[in-house]
Design goal:
Arc Repressor Mutant, subunit A, Aminopeptidase, 18 strands, 3 domains, alpha/beta, elongated, single chain, Glucose Oxidase, domain 1
């Protein structure tokens, strides 16, 4: 089961502190390069304009903590990097409990969870704490220490281009800017890493593949600002890969268009793998599909997920961990469903029958020699395939009409092609 290998990789990446920018992203990409050596790492300077946005300063964090009046260390960044508000500016001083409370974030509804909070685009600082611990804080002076830097550096992302027979591309995007969250963060880049390895190993790839590992939002905006013309010309289908590691359910978020080949494939695959999958609407968006499908961009990008971001209780907290939320089985399911979607796109064709009227199947040794229910069903599927092979219905259309998974048609198509009865 490949899910175990993906899980082991997630364990390797788990301790690395990631944010929009910084050495944690670079270190993560170096680990990914061990699996996909052709991954190219790009740096984009602070201050670079990307449409309506600007690449922010780079953030470096060395240490952060709070010391209580009785000398105890709390909110220790080195114990859990979620304790520090992301992109916190440097600070060292003493505050009363009343003043400190203004800089603390907790979740009363989840008293044992550390929330994930950031301040990317406004220079500020703060700490995240379990609400159960916050309620135990006593009056007095608290020493606060944040050893961080905000400086003109760069934003880092990884890009992999895999050539196929056609110049048309399948685009896959995932993000690596969230620290210590397993489903919302690590599942995406880990599954995408192994999906990239699988795609690279395929012989006779029909499509080319453009795969990116980026910081969420600003990363996709920067990437689009640099590659939009090529992507508008070449992108045939695409998926934003996130939240693919738990074992609760499958879900689907459409592109803004809702009728792209990416949407069509996602719905078909999910219908035959998990009849209880959750279907969301475009208005439920919340990840990088917002950029890829925005007006004036409008790429055919949708999302196939396990439990969607924001829809599980551990989301954006320390409870989204590798022990309780993500599993090898869940990651395996995320990998397999995306692999199946890619195979469906690769194999989707517009078949056209080559003879007038129905072919005489016995003449081509296609009529079953032994009867029975199975033979009757197979004959009916072949007959339906032939009947709809007019060059106007693609293979997914025909599979939907027959109410069967499209992959059941592959061997029939191959057989009919070998007899000269079908062209694609």
């Amino acid at each position: 089961m490949i899910g175990k290998k993906i899980y082991n990789f997630a364990e390797t990446l788990w301790p690395i502190n990631r944010s929009l920018t910084g050495d944690g992203v670079r270190e993560t990409l170096l680990e990914i390069k061990k699996h996909i050596p052709n991954l190219k790492v790009h740096e984009v300077n602070t201050g670079t304009k990307a449409f309506d946005w600007t690449v922010p300063k780079e953030w470096r964090i060395n240490d952060a903590w709070i010391k209580t009046p009785d000398g105890r260390m709390i909110c220790n960044f080195k114990e859990n990097n979620l304790h520090l508000v992301g992109y916190s500016m440097p600070f060292h001083g003493k505050l009363t409990l009343e003043d400190l409370q203004k800089k603390l974030f907790s979740l009363p509804a989840q008293p044992d969870a550390i929330p994930y909070i950031t301040s990317y685009y406004k220079e500020d600082w703060g700490f995240c704490i379990k609400d159960s611990e916050r309620k135990r804080l006593k009056d007095g002076d608290y020493e606060v220490f944040i050893d961080s830097e905000l400086f003109n550096g760069s934003l880092t992302y990884g890009e992999l281009l895999i050539k196929g027979k056609e110049k048309k591309e399948i685009f896959l995007s995932t993000y690596l800017c969230h620290p210590s969250m397993a489903n919302n963060e690590l599942s995406g880049p880990c599954v995408t890493t192994f999906l990239s390895k699988h795609i690279s190993s395929l012989e006779n790839r029909r499509y080319s593949y453009r795969i990116v590992f980026i910081p969420e939002t600003i990363g996709s905006i920067v990437y689009l600002s640099k590659n939009l013309k090529k992507m508008k010309e070449s992108t045939h289908a695409g998926y934003n890969i996130t939240c693919v590691g738990d074992n609760r359910s499958f879900s689907y978020l459409p592109s803004r268009n809702g009728k792209t080949i990416s949407d069509k494939v996602a719905l078909h695959v999910l219908k035959h793998i998990d009849k209880d999958f959750k279907k969301y609407e475009w208005n439920d968006r919340g990840s990088d599909e917002r950029q890829y499908c925005s007006p004036n961009i409008d790429l055919p990008v949708s999302s196939i997920m396990r439990t969607k971001y924001g829809e599980y209780p551990e989301y954006h907290t320390s409870l989204d961990n590798l022990n309780d939320v993500v599993s090898a089985e869940g990651l395996n399911g995320g990998f397999e469903i995306l692999k199946l979607a890619i195979e469906t796109i690769e194999n989707n064709i517009y078949p056209k029958i080559t003879v007038m009227c129905e072919p005489q199947l016995g003449k081509y040794d296609l009529y079953p020699s032994i009867g029975g229910p199975k033979a009757t069903k197979e004959l009916r599927i072949m007959s339906n395939l032939i009947s709809y092979s007019d060059g106007k219905h693609d293979l997914i259309d025909i599979a939907d009409i027959c109410d069967i998974p499209v992959w059941e048609l592959y061997p029939i198509v191959k057989n009919l092609e070998s007899k000269g009865l079908l062209v694609t």
